[in-house]
Amino acid sequence: MSQLINTSQPLSLLYQRSDLVAINKPHGLLVHRSHIASDASEFAVQLLRDQLGQRVYPVHRLDRKTGGVLLFALSESMNSIMQQQFAEGLINKTYLAIVRGYTNDEQDIDYPLRRDHRNGGDAASRPGVEQEAFTHVKTLQRTEIPLPFGNHATSRYSLVELTPTTGRMHQLRKHMAHILHPIIGDRPHGCNKQNKLFKDHFEMNTMLLHAQRISFTHPITSEVITITAPWQTEFGRMFSTLFESGSLPIY
């Protein structure tokens, strides 16, 4: 199987200045220590702190199996400001995913979600309470490959651009499962049979979700900052395997 994390290499820095830094997080790397992933011994916060030689503050989160842009503040004050921007929906985020089936050209998903785990906070953030959740889906490419699955002689997949306007836990994973186009490699929200197919046939053991881009206005300079992350190796390998075009739509 492909090795997803190579901690002998420094984290790839996408953006760096005195108050903010962004990395291209590898698939499989936790942002920080978590009681629900006791098997992990290395974390993005720890690795970046050691690499830069200073304390770092993650201003948002990415799932362990999601790769791509992850933004850190380099001071407590900037961390508070940037977290407030995220909370107010002032940070524009774009993801790419490879999903099962042929998706619509474009689609808006307006489907409330419940939190998965108790995580403190106010009543609206606790398990059992529904929160509004919105995601825009745009299909970039579709493919059909001669790989039998179930009663079908072929398998169909889509490369989609996902733009969430809310930031709920596992929002993109749950929304794509809700419209019956689960993200490949997603557990537990995805299709276990498809996940097994990819593991057995392609030796693919990650989730095909990539945080492609974030854009925001810098709170001090008022400069519009856009940070884009190249796909990690495993995502690129699966794109090249499934789709006819060998070029990655990085923009």
Automatic annotation (TrEMBL):
Keywords: Isomerase. It comes from the Bacteria. Residues 19-178 form the Pseudouridine synthase RsuA/RluA-like domain. Pfam families: PseudoU_synth_2 (PF00849). InterPro entries: PsdUridine_synth_cat_dom_sf, PsdUridine_synth_RsuA/RluA, RluA_PseudoU_synthase. This is Pseudouridine synthase. It comes from Spirosoma flavum.
